[in-house]
C-alpha cells in the first residue's frame, strides 16, 4: 500500500515556502493592564494562544506557485547498484544476500504502492509504466541542454526549485563571454539497462497526510550514456567567429552513469506535472545500517530511530 510522508517534513516544507506576515497593533504596559483587570502581580496568569490554522487550511490558502516542490527523496528508497559494483557473492555473501532481498522486497512494495496510489487513493490517475522511462530521458536531455545554453526559463519549468536555483547559480557564476557546449552522443545500451540506455530502478508513490487528494510520485531512472562537454569564448566587439576564440576548447567525451529522479506532485486533486528533482546515489552496503533498511524493526521503531 502507498505509505505516507512524515508530518514533520511536510510542515517544514510548507513553512519554508509560505512567507509569514506581521500586523501592526497598539501596545500598552503589561503590568498596568494586569492591575486594571484586578489581577495581582505574582499570580499565575494563563494566556490562551491564538488558534493556528491547520495544514490543510494553510495549503489551500497558498497560491499554486507557492506550494513546496522539494519534499526530499522519499525515505527508504532503495536504488540498485550496477552489477559490477555489488558485493562479491563469494567474499561478502551475507551483504549481497541482504541487498538482493531488499531489492526484491522493495520492488514488490513499490509496485503495490503505485497501484494503490493511482487506483485507490487517487482514482483515475494514469500509471505511466510505459512512459516513465522516456519521460526521464527527455527531461535529462532538456535539462543539460538548457544548462549549457544558460536557458534559465526552461530550467525553471522542468526542474524543482532547489535544483533550478543551484543550476541558475552556476550559470550566473560563469565568465561573461564563456559559453558551454554539451551533447549526448549515444546511449550505452548494455545489460544494465536492458540494452535501452535507461532503466527504471525505483518507482514510489505516497499520500501526503492531512491533505486530501494529495501526494507525490518519484521515479528514479538509471541512464548510461556517452556525453561530450566543452567551453569557448564568444566573439566580442563585432569580431567574426574565425577571428576569435569561439571554438570549443577542451572538449571531453566520457561515459556517464546517472540516476535521474523525476517527480510529480499532486495538491488537492491537481497534478503539477513531472519535474526533475535531481540525482541520487545507489544503495550500498554502508546503507544497510540505516534504520530504514535494518532487519527486524517495526515501522514505528524505524521512524523513532530516525529522530
Query: What's the CATH class label?
Result: Alpha Beta
SSE string: EHHHHHHHEEEEEH
Topology-level CATH name: Nuclear Transport Factor 2, Chain: A
Sheet/helix structural class: alpha+beta
Residues in helices, as a percent range: 25-40%
**Rg:** 26 Å
Biggest beta sheet attributes = 6 strands, mixed
CATH architecture: Roll
Q: What is the oligomer described by this structure?
A: single chain
Shape: globular
Report the span from N to C terminus. 24 Å
Verbal overview:
It contains 8 helices and 6 strands. The chain has 307 residues and is α+β, with helices and mostly antiparallel strands. Strand 3 and strand 4 form a beta hairpin. Strands 1, 2, 3, 4, 5 and 6 form a 6-stranded mixed beta sheet that branches. It has one domain: Nuclear Transport Factor 2, Chain: A, CATH 3.10.450.240. Its main location: mitochondrion.
Brief sketch in words of this structure:
It is found in: Mitochondrion. With 307 residues, the protein is an alpha+beta fold. Helices cover 32% and strands 23% of the residues.
Give the SSE layout.
Blueprint: E1 3-4, H1 7-17, H2 30-36, H3 55-61, H4 93-121, H5 132-149, H6 152-158, H7 161-172, E2 178-187, E3 198-207, E4 215-233, E5 249-267, E6 270-279, H8 299-306
Parallel strand pairs: 1-3
Antiparallel strand pairs: 2-4, 3-4, 4-5, 5-6
Helix pairs in contact: 5-6, 6-7
Amino acid at each position: 500500500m502507498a505509505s505516507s510522508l512524515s508530518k514533520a517534513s511536510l510542515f517544514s516544507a510548507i513553512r519554508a515556502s509560505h512567507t509569514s506576515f506581521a500586523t501592526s497593533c497598539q501596545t500598552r504596559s503589561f503590568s498596568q493592564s494586569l492591575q486594571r483587570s484586578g489581577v495581582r502581580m505574582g499570580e499565575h496568569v494563563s494566556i490562551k494562544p491564538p488558534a493556528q490554522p491547520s495544514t490543510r487550511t494553510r495549503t489551500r490558502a497558498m497560491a499554486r506557485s507557492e506550494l513546496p516542490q522539494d519534499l526530499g527523496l522519499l525515505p527508504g528508497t532503495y536504488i540498485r547498484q550496477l552489477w559490477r559494483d555489488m558485493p562479491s557473492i563469494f567474499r561478502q555473501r551475507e551483504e549481497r544476500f541482504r541487498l538482493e532481498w531488499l531489492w526484491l522486497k522493495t520492488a514488490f512494495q513499490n509496485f503495490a504502492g503505485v497501484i494503490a496510489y493511482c487506483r485507490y487513493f487517487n482514482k483515475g490517475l494514469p500509471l505511466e509504466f510505459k512512459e516513465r522511462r522516456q519521460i526521464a530521458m527527455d527531461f535529462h536531455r532538456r535539462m543539460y541542454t538548457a544548462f549549457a545554453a544558460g536557458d534559465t526559463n526552461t530550467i525553471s519549468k522542468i526542474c524543482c526549485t532547489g535544483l533550478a536555483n543551484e543550476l541558475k547559480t552556476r550559470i550566473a557564476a560563469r565568465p561573461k563571454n564563456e559559453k558551454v557546449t554539451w551533447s549526448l552522443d549515444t546511449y550505452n545500451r548494455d545489460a544494465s539497462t536492458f540494452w535501452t540506455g535507461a532503466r527504471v530502478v525505483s518507482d514510489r508513490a505516497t499520500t501526503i497526510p492531512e491533505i486530501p487528494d494529495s501526494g507525490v510520485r518519484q521515479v528514479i531512472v538509471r541512464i548510461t550514456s556517452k556525453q561530450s562537454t566543452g567551453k569557448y569564448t564568444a566573439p566580442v566587439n563585432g569580431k567574426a567567429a574565425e577571428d576569435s576564440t569561439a571554438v570549443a576548447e577542451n572538449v571531453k567525451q566520457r561515459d556517464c552513469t546517472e540516476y535521474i529522479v523525476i517527480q510529480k506532485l499532486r495538491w488537492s486533486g491537481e497534478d503539477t506535472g513531472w519535474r526533475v528533482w535531481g540525482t541520487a546515489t545507489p544503495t550500498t552496503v554502508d546503507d544497510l545500517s540505516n534504520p530504514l533498511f535494518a532487519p527486524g524493526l517495526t515501522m514505528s521503531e524505524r521512524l523513532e530511530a530516525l529522530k
